[in-house]
Amino acid sequence: MQQVADRAGVSIATVSFVVNGTKYVTPATTAKVTAAMRELKFRGNVVARALASRRTRIIALLFPTTGNRFSPTTSEFFMSAAERASERGHHLVLWPVDPAGEDLDDLVSGGLVDGVVLMEVRMDDPRVAKLTELGVPFTLIGRTRDSSALPFVDIDFETTIEDSLDHLQGLGHRRFGLVLENLEGTPMAGYAPHLRVEDTFRASVAERGGAGTIVYAASGSEGGRAAARELLAADPDVTAVLVMKDDSSAGLLVGLWSAGRRVPDDVSVLSIASSAAAGDQHHPRLAVMIAPGHELGVRAADALIDQLDGTSTELPHFLLPCVLRTAESTAPAPAPRV
Question: How far from the centroid of its chain's Cα atoms is residue 157's Cα?
Answer without folding.
Answer: 12
